[in-house]
Amino acid sequence: MRKICAMLAGVLFLVLVGSGCGTILATQKDAALQSGRIGSTEISAEHNGAGNAGSGKAHSFCAETINAFLNEEKRYQIGKIDDLLFSRPAGSRERLLTAAPKRTEASYASIAGRRIPIVTIFLAACTVIGIAGLLFFRKWHKANIRSKDIEIKYREQLFGVLASNVDDIFIMFAPQDYTVEYVSPNIERLLGITQANMKNNIRALGTTALDPEHEITAADLRGIRLGEFRRQERERLHQKTGERRWYQETLYHVSIENTDKFILVMADRTEERHAHRVLQHAMSIAESSNEAKSSFLAHMSHDIRTPISAVIGMTEIAKRHTSEPEKVEDCLDKVLVSSKQLLGLVNDVLDMSKIESGVVSLQESNCEIGQIVDEVVTVIQPQASAKAQELQVELLNISHRLFTCDELRINKILINLLSNAVKYTQEGGKVRFSVEELEQSNANYAKMQFKVEDNGMGIPPEFMGRLFEPFSRSEKAELSKIQGTGLGMSIVKALVDAMGGTISTDSRQGEGSTFTVILEFRIDHSREEKSEKSKDSSGYNFGGKRYLLAEDNDINAEIMMELLKMRGAEAVRVNNGQKAVELFAAHREGYFDAVFMDVMMPVMNGYEATKALRALERADAKAVIIVAMTANAFAEDIKAALDSGMDDHIAKPISIERLADILEQSETDKGKEK
Predict the structure, then answer these.
(1) Angle (CA) 524 530 536, round 5°
(2) Residues 6 or more apart in contact with residue 523 via CB below 8 angstroms
(3) Do 198 and 205 meet the contact criterion of CB atoms below 8 Å apart?
(4) How far is the CA of 338 from the CAs of 106, 265, 314, 333, 348, in angstroms?
(5) CA atoms within 13 A on the CB side of 656
(6) Of 202, 181, 180, which is closest to residue 191 (Cα–Cα)?
(7) pTM above 0.85, yes or no
(8) Which ranges constitute the DSSP H helices of 321-456?
(9) C-alpha to C-alpha distance for 471 and 490, rounded to whole angstroms
(10) Cα–Cα distance between 145 and 263 in angstroms, integer?
């Protein structure tokens, strides 16, 4: 831009010089022409007045002057007339005397009474225009420079804001003496070093390094050629807070205005490294889980085949000894035990599948602590008795007995813990189960501690870290002989977490183990505390009762009808929900004492059938007991059954004792409602 300005100034100077020269030349030409006109006039006067005497000298002088001027052979632009002054001597005088006056009058302009050459006016106008153009260009140039300065200032401010707020540090220094020419202001926030200290001595950066041996040396700098860079990751320590963070440090060798510079960019990679570690940990867990699943499948192949083989084998033996009642009864008892074992394996796998898919939901209902304990002990006592173990049960400091909780999940937790205690304790050992109410932290919640202790073989120390991992089982020879899926403790941990509780373990190999679970239950203030209900189901009488059974599976229907018939009851069976509704409506009110409803049936499922039955315009449709009998045994399945209008839920395979409890309780509740 400066070169352009200089060129324009030079052009303007030439224009001014040319205008001056042109003005002088025009003035001289006009003077010469004027002199020639005057000389000719005088010659003519003298010639007319005195004849030819004495005219030779004057004529000769004038002619020489004009001829000398004419012999230049040039063209002159005067106004708009381009006249050629001939160089020929012959006849030139006559042409000069006639043309000179016209040319002279056209070369001048009268301005304010003064005669000014037109060439001068034209050149003056060009000068004014040139000066005006120069001034305009100068003003435009200044505005352009100011705009560039503002843009540069904005860029510097933007870079400053970014450098202050991002977690990347920028340092530029000279390779000759390591003079720091720029350091981003965020260095004090990120590393605890002030800009001033950093500019004074670049070696201040070395005080933050946790690995000084990897600091870049002068030899390293010489090894980085122009246009190349060097990158490494290092951990540094904040000088004021002591915080440790990882940086990806990239050193660039660049040229700025033909001067070598080094630019160090320190990018914070702490969060990325943390995410990477988390990902690696997750991958490690996934790999461990895959290995555990492979091991689980190997164990399950054995654990599932064992009870199945027992069921098939004992059934075959019973068929061959039909004439020996005692032998048949023994075989059937073993079939029953093996079937329950197989059912437990299947339930564990299904529970873990639900937990791993993240669809565990709690179904809270009214619970009584004594009833929960009785139900658990009823299941565990036979197992302990089979191994001649002593099962101790204690209730300590119980101030509240009525709660709102998920009874099914609590039973699952306690039964798993007690089953393991019995399973891993030698014959004749001791198992202690205690329930204690701890000090309340909230008036509306009771804090309950469930503790299961045994004097069994204990848990190997190397296995304690994997105790709650899915599909994990100890590889100890004495433990590997015990059947199990490796899912029990994983299920317990997941359910305790879902309830917002805690579980802790204390175990010594060869001495025994203690598991402690602490849960908080919302106290049910709306009900009066009552004594524990007896769970003896032998008092319920099936005799003379008539039931409607909706079951699409022929084998399940046959089993259920036979169980009811053995207890003196009658059952009418249909194979879908729509027929159940139609059959109920076709009989008089009170004809059926209860309805046993399968859920997954053709035409109309159990939920739809229940809603349709409840909607019938008759009194018993609202009052009849409806119990869901289904293989869908999760908490959400129970909730769906209750929401559809059923009174209770029982999972297949059907326990007739459990069914008796449900019917007795439902009849009691219905009687209170009346």
Answers:
(1) 115
(2) 400, 402, 403, 404, 444, 445, 446
(3) yes
(4) 137, 69, 10, 9, 16
(5) 14
(6) 202
(7) no
(8) 325-356, 369-386, 407-423
(9) 8
(10) 29
DSSP-assigned beta bridge partners for residue 78? 81
Q: pLDDT digit string (tens) for 91-145?
A: 444 444 444 444 445 466 666 666 677 777 778 788 888 888 888 888 887 877 8
- Residue 229: name the closest of 248, 214, 213 by CA: 248
| Segment holding 311, helix H or strand E | helix 270-320
Rg (C-alpha) for the chain, rounded Å, is 57
Pairing of strands 546-550, 365-368: unpaired
Q: Are strands 402-405 and 512-523 parallel, antiparallel or unpaired?
A: antiparallel
Strands 570-574, 546-550: pairing is parallel
Q: Which of 499, 521, 372 is nearest to 446 (CA)?
A: 521
> Nearest Cα to 454, choosing from 513, 509, 508?
513
Distance from the Cα of residue 184 to its chain's centroid? 30
3-class DSSP state of 264: strand
Cβ-count burial of 674 within 10 angstroms (0-12 exposed, 13-18 middle, 19+ buried)? Answer: exposed
Strands 445-454 and 75-78: unpaired
The bridge status of strand 108-111 relative to strand 445-454 is unpaired
In angstroms, rounded to a whole number, what is the distance separating the alpha carbons of residues 499 and 485?
23
Q: Does residue 556 contact residue 563 with C-beta atoms inside 8 Å?
A: no
Amino acid residing at 27: T
CA angle 561, 562, 564 (to 5 degrees): 65
Contact yes or no for 379/348 (Cβ under 8 A): no
Q: Token match 């004439």: residue?
A: 323
| Gap between the Cα atoms of 78 and 118, Å rounded | 8
Task: Answer whether 32's CB lies under 8 Å from 62's CB.
Answer: no
Side chain identity, residue 331 = C
The span from the CA of 459 to the CA of 489, in Å, is: 13
Tell me: the pLDDT tens digits for 573-629? 999 999 999 999 999 999 999 999 999 999 999 999 999 999 999 989 999 999 999
**Residue 210, token pair as written in the block:** 């946790």
Angle at 265 between CA 259 and CA 270, to 5 degrees: 175
Residues 6+ apart with CB under 8 A from 430: 389, 390, 392, 454, 455
Task: Residue 117: name the closest of 227, 208, 29 by CA.
Answer: 29
Tokens of 463: 């296995």
pLDDT of residue 9: 52
